[in-house]
Design a protein that fits this description.
single chain; mainly alpha; 2 helices
Length: 43
C-alpha cells in the first residue's frame, strides 16, 4: 500500500456510480471493449 493511502475504500454515491456506468456503456458502444480505457470513460 502506498504511503498516505486511505485504509478504507470510500463508497460512491448512487448518482456518481450511475454516471460512471453510463460513461462506460457509451465508450464501449463507440470504441468496443478493447478500446475503452479509464481515460476515455473519465472524459
Amino acid at each position: 500500500m502506498e504511503a498516505g493511502a486511505p485504509t478504507q475504500r470510500s463508497q460512491l454515491s448512487g448518482e456518481k456510480a450511475q454516471r460512471i456506468v453510463d460513461a462506460m456503456r457509451a465508450s464501449v458502444a463507440l470504441r468496443g471493449v478493447a478500446g475503452s480505457t479509464f481515460d476515455h470513460v473519465s472524459r
